Amino acid sequence: MNEPQLCGMALTALDRPSPLLRPGNTNCGGCGMSNLFQMMRRAVADRPAQLVIPACCGAVAAGAFPQSAYGAPTLLTTFASASAAATGAACVAQLNSEETRVICLAGDGGTYDIGFASMSAAAERNEDILYICYDNEIYGNTGGQRSSATPAGAVTTNTQEGKPEQKKDIMAIMAAHRIPYAASLSLAHADDTMRKLRLALDLRGFRFLHVLSPCPTGWKSEPALGMELVRLAVRSGLFPVIEVFDGKRHLVNIEPDFSDEALEMYLSLQRRFQRSRLKAADLRPAIDRHWQNLRVLSGRIVPARRDGQGR
Ligand SMILES: Cc1ncc(C[n+]2csc(CCOP(=O)(O)OP(=O)(O)O)c2C)c(N)n1
Ligand code: SF4
Ligand SMILES: [Mg+2]
Fold first, then answer.
1. Deepest in the core among 49, 154, 198, 303, taking most CB within 10 A?
2. Protein residues whose CB sits closer than 6 Å to any atom of ligand 1
3. pTM here?
């Protein structure tokens, strides 16, 4: 008997029948993760690839078996087992002398919180995995609870007055694992993002990419404004676009202008910050401290500010 036609589902890492994430999936309009997949598709091109996705909106987007929105073989896992499953897939590819890129795609909940232990362990073992965290700063799939990636002041379903704690610095945490490559990606800066995606796909060992991923549903923002929000986050210095090689060599890829106007705009375009009435001046000291540290790490002299305080 013939095998059933699995509705165009990719069966091997060499299959690339259609986009990595097909249209008509369940993602909300304006979802940053959908944009990321369009860029990943172009970066992956004809490289053999396999996806590993723990619980998150990306897992729901796959749809119900035997259909799949993904144009690559996809393993959906529990939070805790994603990096372990990706390790297994990478080992099998190596044993079979296959060039398969194993891409683990997880949300901030799966990365910063619930899947952190196995992700950290895979990074420490330097497994041959490209791990991509799309960070919408919320547990989006379960209705919008806080994660440790949620920024201070953001209202979520379980931080009704705005989250009191700061966002974790995941790039510093991953750099401390001394993995071959860690980079933060701005979806609004396509050239830089495509370069980093291709580089990360071709490197070996554990590579970590951190993507700020607009979520109109959780951020209470207009779906059409996602890329503008990312641009404002980068311009204001809120989201540093950097890369770190072997946990040592730090490079700043996009220089912000540290505009308070951009920061105000970023806050005002998202209703999640409305209740805490956050202003640029509330965030600026922490942004300055973070950049001061990045300047030291990247070996750049800290330029004096006009007010003489240095940045
Ligand atoms: C161990 C465990 N705890 C909780 C859940 C419920 N759960 C499913 S998806 C999700 C949120 C995931 O958030 P994130 O990883 O940021 O992805 P997003 O939904 O934002 O895309 C949660 C809490 C679960 N599936 N397993
Ligand atoms: S809830 Fe947010 S992350 Fe999830 S599909 Fe919708 S826009 Fe995307
Ligand atoms: Mg999330």
1. 49
2. 55-57, 79, 106-110, 114, 136, 138-142, 147
3. 0.94
